[in-house]
Amino acid sequence: MPNLEGEELRFYKACENGHIDVMRTLLDSGAKIDLQDNDGSTPLIRASRYGHIDVVRALLGSGANVDHQDKQGSTPLLWASFNGHIDVLRSLLDSGAKVDLQDNEGSTPLLWASIKGHIDVVRALLDRGAKVDLQNNTDSTPLIEASYNGHIDVMRALLDSGAKVDLQSNKGFTPLDWASPKGHIDVVSALLDSGANVDLQDNEGITPLI
User: Looking at the whole model, is its pTM more than 0.85?
Assistant: First the structure.
């Protein structure tokens, strides 16, 4: 929540709500481009989260910190990835955003885009060199998340980029373990076609077939 007032709050809200003319006027009047609210969120994070591409471009052009992390470790790129704002994502990457910067839970933009099923975002991140098997704090991967959520196009893009089909989480779960009980038959078939091991056990000795 904002801890701001006066001109700072107006500037923050203008960016959050996509009011480009107000944002520029306040910026020309000396607004601090990287001011933060109580959560450590900046105007660029808010504009990226809500997909305001004109505001994002103006902030970046004025020197906003493209990789600023809020108190949860979230960046503008992570929020753009989470919400599927492909134009914002490309603008951030073109401005030098680190493609694999992780939040406090170890999650990357690619992992969040895989969870949400944003295939265009996934492809753009992979094209920019995102690490396809980078694990979060529970050792989950983009492929595990895409499989669990039944995002077949995302799963195929990850496999085409070299994702390890049997990479396990901290509980020993594989993408196949997650896709099978959810009934995602197309995902299961694609994983099997990619060589998934049906006999691989989790930490309790259970396989996808049990």
Answer: yes
